[in-house]
Amino acid sequence: MNTNTDIGAIAKAVVRRNTEEVQGGGNFALFDELFADDFVDHTPQPAGTPDKAGARLLYRALRQAFPDFHAVIHWQSVEGDRVTTFKTYHGTHEGALFGIAPTGRKVQFDTVDVMRVQDGRITEHWGVAHLYSLLQQLNALPAMFPAA
């Protein structure tokens, strides 16, 4: 039995459950189980906090803005206790987000993130979301950056 492989498979499953059941399904009881109390987000969104409460707030804001919010995971890779995931988020903009009034538009944007999983819980996050693409789709870019 290869312990590193088992740990990697468990870590990937934890991250996948977060993506599918918490972000995509709105299961915030599971959020509390999956995220460590001392969770640190190294790349919080604007006006967010780099902790568990900030991540919960962001997830709730996304679910309110996009009630059908969900991700398609393209691939995951594990190195040690870190899981890297490339995914595309999808949703219909039916609630305010970042001060942008609902547009009713269907959107999608890519994200790459890394989550550290220790003892079955997410302890750290680093991520890059293609928010420029999201703003383009919502027609919310300043005049100096017109939508294509």
Automatic annotation (TrEMBL):
<dbReference type="InterPro" id="IPR009959">
    <property type="entry name" value="Cyclase_SnoaL-like"/>
</dbReference>
<dbReference type="Pfam" id="PF07366">
    <property type="entry name" value="SnoaL"/>
</dbReference>
<dbReference type="GO" id="GO:0030638">
    <property type="term" value="P:polyketide metabolic process"/>
</dbReference>
<dbReference type="InterPro" id="IPR032710">
    <property type="entry name" value="NTF2-like_dom_sf"/>
</dbReference>
<protein>
    <submittedName>
        <fullName>Ester cyclase</fullName>
    </submittedName>
</protein>
